[in-house]
Specification:
Length: about 260
């Protein structure tokens, strides 16, 4: 009898010990479930391009009697004009060949540079920059802007596809100069633009904007010293505009003007 009870007790002890080993040496799981979401979507990058067209030279001197032809450009699809209250006043000039045309004090020459700008991106803004006066000049020339060229005033002005001026003339200094801003919508990332630089929203479908940039070169009419015949100013072989993306950031030293309050 004692032997049976002892054997049964040993079996119970062994079973309890086995349960303790199982509980202490393994983990248990709570409920879990899995699911899936639709995949395979693509993220597409935007695009930014700047393409130049054919440039021309126009004598737009105000006192030239036969300046009766509106200054034309392929970018405007017609003539250029400064806006009036209810209309636009065409800029009048005479198409000239710089190879034979000779400048004298009081003259103004207008060089037209048509551009097609492409911006594709939901939050894309860019600044259009043109070379400063020093960088417009062919460095291989004997003439420098600090020499004979110091009698010249260089100014930029931007015109839209409708031919109307987007802003006033701005003087080209020695540094590269921002002449306009472009954006893909009217409120790109809450940015505002300092200064009086023109701002244009590109076409919402094509992402394009067609503009004409005009470089005015005026020979100071007060110059009395006669300059020997020859080159007074030779432009660089390639006058390059730059279109660069800008972002709205709070850093005062950044290239974007500034952000709206709270951005």
């Amino acid at each position: 009898m004692k032997t049976k009870m002892a054997r049964r007790r040993n079996i119970v002890v062994a079973a309890v010990a086995g349960m303790a080993l199982l509980v202490g040496g393994s983990a248990y799981s709570l409920w879990s479930a899995t699911g899936s979401i639709q995949g395979g979507d693509e993220i597409t990058a935007g695009n930014m391009e700047l393409n130049g067209g054919e440039s021309n030279a126009w004598d737009v001197s105000g006192d030239r009697a036969n300046n009766t032809t509106p200054v034309e450009t392929e970018a405007a699809g017609g003539f250029l004009a400064v806006p009036l209250v209810d209309d636009k006043d065409p800029i009048l000039g005479t198409l000239v060949d710089l190879a034979t045309w000779k400048i004298v004090p009081g003259d103004t020459i207008a060089l037209t540079f048509p551009f097609q700008i492409t911006l594709q991106g939901d939050n894309l803004a860019a600044e259009l920059t043109m070379p400063g006066a020093q960088n417009l000049i062919d460095k291989g020339e004997d003439t420098t802007f600090a020499g004979k060229g110091s009698n010249l005033t260089l100014e930029y002005q931007v015109f839209g596809a409708d031919g109307k001026a987007m802003g006033a003339k701005v003087t080209a200094g020695n540094q590269n100069l921002t002449v306009a801003y472009f954006e893909t919508n009217a409120n790109v990332i809450g940015a505002t633009y300092e200064g009086n630089m023109p701002v244009k929203t590109v076409d919402p479908v094509t992402g394009e904007a067609v503009v004409t940039l005009v470089l005015y070169i005026t020979f100071d009419k007060t110059v009395t010293d006669r300059i020997d015949a020859g080159s007074i100013l030779k432009l660089s072989q390639s006058v390059e505009a730059t279109l660069a993306q800008v972002r709205c950031v709070d850093d005062a030293g950044a290239n974007f003007p500034k952000c709206e309050a709270g951005e």
